[in-house]
Specification:
The protein has about 90 residues and is an all-beta fold. It has one domain. The protein has no helices and 6 strands. The strands form 2 sheets. It has a 3-stranded antiparallel beta sheet with strand order 1-2-3, with no helix packed on it. Strands 4-5-6 form a 3-stranded antiparallel beta sheet, with no helix packed on it. Strand 1 and strand 2 form a beta hairpin. It starts with a strand and ends with a strand.
Length: about 90
């Protein structure tokens, strides 16, 4: 499994962060000539919205992902309590 933090900016002042937990599996693909080749499939297991202009860190220990937020959005400097998520394959 892979843990990814993605950000999106739609043109305004916001930058929206999301944590994605992604499962990686081997698969067969077909090229333009119909020949089989090896590739990987990425399946989004879970997404967690971190928020607008999120600041913090992730700590991974085994299957546990601890989210520590140091800044709670653009208007607040207060931190949210840490959250722990257990990553499990479907």
């Amino acid at each position: 499994m892979i843990v990814v933090i993605a950000s999106y900016s739609g043109g305004g002042s916001g930058i929206f962060y999301t944590l994605h937990i992604v499962d990686v599996t081997a698969a067969h693909g077909y090229d333009i000539e119909g020949k089989v080749y090896q590739r990987i499939n990425l399946i989004n297991v879970r997404s967690v919205i971190l928020g607008d202009r999120w600041e913090g860190e992730l700590k991974i220990s085994g299957n546990a992902i601890k989210i520590v937020t140091t800044r709670n959005g653009p208007a607040g400097d207060s931190a949210r309590p840490p959250v722990t998520i257990i990553a499990q394959r479907p």
